[in-house]
């Protein structure tokens, strides 16, 4: 009986789980009861691992069976903690991967933005080059008489009149400035001459009266000359504004109109050339695109033509109004000065609201120099 129990105990196997640890099996209560009944003491009982009649290579105490079971139970606790650590490390790895993904996505967005800007610039350059080529081709064709151009005879005549008027007004402005410079030098000479006569009248008793009369005359002429200079300077300033600002602004609009006319004729000629060619699918697509461009430049040309017409009308009205006032001022001031009518000269300046600068006004004060 004892041999059969020991042989059963010797053939017991300790199960191993998939992790290499001893697995937890249901306890064999029947076998344990048999051992407790048959054997004198479990703690002193030995199990021979050799099997039936085998040589005893190792002896295992039966008390170690319970120890192995207890160790197997305890080993299940660290495995759960290791799984928790494993989950935590996976969460950290997941966060790191998210950060890496966000940084890579932001860099890709910046790269796409830069690429979009570069593509837009290239497209702009392509359109500019194509437009320049068409306009240059049209300009050369018109110059050599091979191309047709759109002409508004009435508007072209008004533009030519404006350019001729501007040239003549520039000549008036140049001459008026020269008159101002010469007259200023004459006034300064009269002022110096009057001071010299006054000094000689003090040092030459025998010619005191004669030098004194001439000194007073030169001082009066100098005063009237300064008044006339104020009127001429106002005249020059008004003509300068009319020529270099008002007329120049209108001429800039005319220049834009002429460029629009050239572009319109260039795209019109391109559309006419395509319309005369074959009518396959590719050509029809090109004709549609050319028709759209032609319509865009036609609207631009007509809009600028209307702007030029309006500006020419307003410029003519403004020119007549300004020149009427300035020519009247110039005539009255010159006539009063050379007639020696000081009162009329001063009245002319008051009529046109011209304020003379006091002597030495051009020189800055000592506070402004600091």
TrEMBL record:
PROSITE patterns: AH. Residues 150-350 form the AH domain. Residues 287-318 form a coiled coil. GO terms for cellular component: cytosol; Golgi membrane; trans-Golgi network membrane. Residues 1-27, 74-114 are annotated as: Disordered. Gene3D superfamilies: Arfaptin homology (AH) domain/BAR domain. GO terms for biological process: intracellular protein transport; regulation of Arp2/3 complex-mediated actin nucleation. GO terms for molecular function: phosphatidylinositol-4-phosphate binding; protein domain specific binding. This is AH domain-containing protein.
